[in-house]
Design brief:
There is one protein chain. The chain is built from six helices and five strands, in the order E-E-H-H-E-H-H-E-E-H-H. It is α+β, with helices and mostly antiparallel strands. It has one domain: Orthogonal Bundle (Arc Repressor Mutant, subunit A). The longest helix has 13 residues. The N terminus is likely disordered.
């Protein structure tokens, strides 16, 4: 964090992101309309696609699939396909995804206290 000092006070001038902003890097991976909810629900454990879809109201199959693929590509979610008829797919958080627990729970607490 950069500050400008004067004789009487310290004034905030912004965060030093010359090496790339870590907040931006984090949000690039978890930003998305449904990603936070996907991560939140997977904190309980492994879920099948349809179970996730039922827990996240108003999400389309296409949107959920897209967001899950992005989370998988970023190493946050793992996907396991079972070779049965009909096939089913399980999703769970990776170790990297589990590291988001405190962040997601902080958002949960903040959201509860600031609901409209």
């Amino acid at each position: 964090m950069d500050t400008v000092k004067s004789k009487t006070s310290r004034r905030f001038t912004g965060y030093d992101c010359s090496e790339g902003c870590p907040v931006e890097a984090a949000l690039e991976q978890i930003a998305g309309k449904w990603k936070g909810l996907i991560i939140y629900h997977l904190l309980d454990g492994t879920l099948r696609f349809n179970a996730l879809s039922r827990r996240i109201e108003n999400v389309t199959q296409r949107s959920l699939t897209k967001q899950l693929r992005e989370l998988e590509a970023d190493g946050i979610v793992s996907r396991h396909v079972h070779a049965v008829v009909p096939p089913h797919v399980d999703y769970s958080l990776t170790d990297k995804g589990q590291q988001l627990k405190d962040v997601i729970m902080a958002l949960h607490a903040w959201g509860q206290s600031h609901r409209r």
